[in-house]
Inverse folding.
């Protein structure tokens, strides 16, 4: 089941925002690093929209998917230019997706890979 979970998460993150949400529980808990934790499709989508609205140019690349049973760690590299500042930023973030019954029920974001791995009971 865990490789299936990796594929569910991969489909979720690379899909169009409307398509991908079919793999997310209606009451998903969305816990991004720089936004408050929210719950539910509408609140999570609004959180994503707020984040993306802060950038003039924004690109996301998914570098790695780590199978951790009912959780999947995704290494995400983002590049963007701040809408107000014009400052270019490049960063890696580590998202932990928790699945139950073949749907994503939670996403927690971490700044450090070691923190994300520790959250799923793994180490570097």
């Amino acid at each position: 089941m865990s490789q299936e979970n990796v594929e569910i998460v991969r489909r979720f993150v690379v899909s169009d925002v409307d398509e991908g949400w079919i793999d997310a529980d209606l009451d998903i808990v969305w816990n991004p690093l720089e936004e408050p934790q929210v719950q539910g499709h509408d609140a999570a989508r609004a959180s994503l929209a707020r984040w993306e609205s802060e950038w003039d140019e924004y690109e996301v690349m998914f570098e790695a998917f780590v199978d951790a049973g009912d959780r999947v760690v995704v290494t995400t590299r983002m590049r963007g230019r701040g809408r107000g500042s014009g400052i270019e930023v490049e960063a890696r973030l580590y998202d932990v997706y928790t699945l139950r019954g073949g749907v994503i029920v939670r996403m927690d974001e971490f700044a450090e890979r070691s923190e994300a791995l520790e959250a799923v009971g793994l180490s570097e």
